[in-house]
Protein: DUF305 domain-containing protein
Organism: Duganella margarita
Amino acid sequence: MPPASAAAPVFVASSAKPFSALMDDAMAVMEAGMRQAPMNGNPNHDFVTMMMPHHQGAVDMAKAVLLSTQDPEIRNLALGIIAEQQVEIQVMQAWLQHHPTKETTK
């Protein structure tokens, strides 16, 4: 885990960067989030905590492409990804709230 003073990276969708840099940023934020996910040995819990930053990575990548394309099919796909992945993140957050953290014995 990084030191308490180290801030977790945050994705910023900005037209000031080229698309490839935005995708690199989105991947770096997603990977950091997945590495920092609080794992406890319970497969259900660990799956959910790892999937939340993974889904957020898809949202961030979709935001990046919306800044870079006017293709209506790609824009529609990206908007759908944002909507669907955000709902799934909310479902996972709710699941975590309703399932107290318990470690499993292997």
About this structure: The two ends are 23 Å apart (CA to CA). The chain is about 65% helix and 0% strand. The chain has one domain: 19-98. Helices lie at 19-35, 43-68, 72-98.
